[in-house]
Amino acid sequence: MIKISFPDGSVREYAKGTSSLQIAESISSRLAQEVIAAGVNGETWDLSRAINADADIKLYKWEDTEGKHAFWHSSAHLMAEALQELYPNMKFGIGPAIENGFYYDVDPGEGVSLKESEFAAIEAKMLELVAKKEPILRTDISQKDALKLFADRGEEYKTELISELTDGTITTYTQGSFTDLCRGPHLPNTSYIKALKLMTVAGAYWRGDEKRRQLTRIYGITFPKKKLLDEYLVFLEEAKKRDHRKIGKELELFTFSKNVGQGLPLWLPKGTALRLKLEEFLKRIQKKFGYQQVITPHIGSKNLYITSGHYEKYGKDSFQPIQTPEEGEEFLLKPMNCPHHCEIYKSSPRSYKDLPYRLAEFGTVYRYEQSGELHGLTRVRGFTQDDAHIYCTSEQVKEEFMKVMDIIHIIFKALDFTDYEAQISLRDPNNKEKYIGSDENWDKAEAAIIEVCQEKGIKARTELGEAAFYGPKLDFMVKDALGRRWQLGTIQVDYNLPERFELEYVGADNQKHRPVMIHRAPFGSMERFVAVLIEHTAGKFPLWLTPDQAVILPISEKFNDYAHQIAKELDSSDIRVLVDDRNEKIGRKIRDNELKKIPYMLIVGEKEAENNEISVRKQGEGDKGSMKIATFAAVLNEEVERQMNEWQ
Question: I want to staple 247 with a disulfide (CB 3.0 to 4.6 A). Which of 179, 539, 612, 624 is the partner?
């Protein structure tokens, strides 16, 4: 017999070799119908996999992230099986579950291209395989046997992956005539999948290497109920309406130019106004928390990034060094602001009385992203981080960390991001070569973050392997209006860069000590944050933030002069206003400006001109009646003041 411990603390005994599905059945038949996968001693397992020793167990349903992952991973295999039957010469790369659904990278072969017009046939074949209720069977296999199995089938991509594995770590999964190299976990059989849809097709270089063959990537999604698929398709339509690329173009916020280069956004006047308001907002908060603003160059000596470790970790995947006429002199486009800030710290002797020393910069950095991965403002090659670095004593770490958390909470509150969770990102204990620094420093840094979360009463989930290469971090995952998760604010504790840059301060004992470095970026990057904000608000920004707070609409050309007179008066009251003096009917002007999501429309005609008034319409609320210009200015500024007071 073996002992199985459940999350509620209860313990039951079962025969050795019992599966998680059998355990679920022993609890209730309803649970057995709903469970998808199981957590066994912290690892996600197939329901059918035998448990041969005492274990802690969690049973995952569709609502659980782990359950969805197993469901969509199995769905990727289902699609691959269908593709194999429809295209016998197809070769397979990788097919993982992703945040929403799955994809599979495939090589259709010379002269064959897969298009969305073929999705219907592939979906039909997938449903045919679902109806067969094919078992999904896991097999442990040696490297030698795995190489032979896939080499005999001409699966060059699989054999490349297998050649990097070792005996005791290789498993395959088989359903019907399809066998795949895979760690799992998977569903017990294909019948769990009740609704499916293939979404898009794209190109993807094998293993992300532009020098390798480009494969075809097919994205899809599946659900255990048709109702869930229907709801998801409605969600996608709403997401299309909120797409920041679409709204950004409509509101004239930003653009891209092939002549400038892929992934390098150009901020238009209205987008610049929005971005500068966000920067002004954060600068005001930072001033209250004792930060000093600095500016650093867009490039740095290659040696600077060799010292920091960035070149070793990212140099091959970054923009290549810039060589000057001076022999041996090389520069890099700045990939990070932190090395520059370390040099600012080093520019003068520091005492414990100077700490904490807080440096902030809206610093633009450059990282080479493959063209296929670029996406609007969310994935770019040049972006500006709301970066700051705090140099402090080890005794000050917790207090400074908490203050940064307070800043992030202020920002989220001000911009109506009310639904968010924290994630403690630690290093992978089984892959320490990915990181720099000693075990002692990592242990101290990780312990500090965990203790702060406990003291703040924050329930944070822990993810191994998600730390930065120089230190662990606390990431904030925000849900937008559509329930999508975005990683925005981040705080990192770093004992390693101060060592690499030999940073020092003189302590109260008159001895030299090493400071601790806290990295933080509440927005993350201005580009990505604005993209998320656009999609969260659908372009209806808070009044204090919106580029144009009001637009004046003269009903005919006769009242253009009066409209511009009003604009000057409102401008003197710090109200951002514009005049729509196009030779168009007033109804057309109202419709057009509704689409621009400008909060207030001020209509002026003969009556308003005679009475020195304006007729006010508010976005989403309609007519507010006529009022004096000074009265309207007071109303608008009072509304702005109220919004500002809510987060201050």
Answer: 539
Is 145 among the residues known to form the active site?
no
CA pseudo-torsion sign 78, 81, 87, 90: positive
Can you read off the two tokens belonging to residue 135? 């078992």
- Write the DSSP string, 134-166: -B-EEEE--HHHHHHHHHHTT-HHHHHHHTT--
pLDDT band at 381 (very low <50, low <70, confident <90, very high): very high
pLDDT score at 292:
97
Q: What letter would DSSP give residue 208?
A: G
473 counts as catalytic: yes
The catalytically annotated residue of 473, 513, 520, 597 is 473
Neighbours of 364 (CB within 10 A): 18
Q: Which one is catalytic: 158, 350, 427, 519?
A: 519
Indicate yes or no: pTM above 0.90.
no
453 in active site: no
CA distance 107 to 113: 9
**pLDDT at residue 648 tops 70:** no
User: Are the CB atoms for 125 and 85 separated by under 8 Å?
Assistant: yes
565 as an active site residue: the answer is no
pLDDT single digits (tens) 217-242: 999 999 999 999 999 999 999 989 99
Catalytic residue, candidates 367, 403, 409, 479? 367
Report phi then psi at 125, rounded to 5: -65, -40
- Active site includes 381? no
389 catalytic per annotation: yes
What's the pLDDT score for residue 542? 93
Using CA atoms in the order 417, 246, 100, 219, what is the torsion angle rounded to 10 degrees? -170
Q: Verify whether residue 358 is a known catalytic residue.
A: no
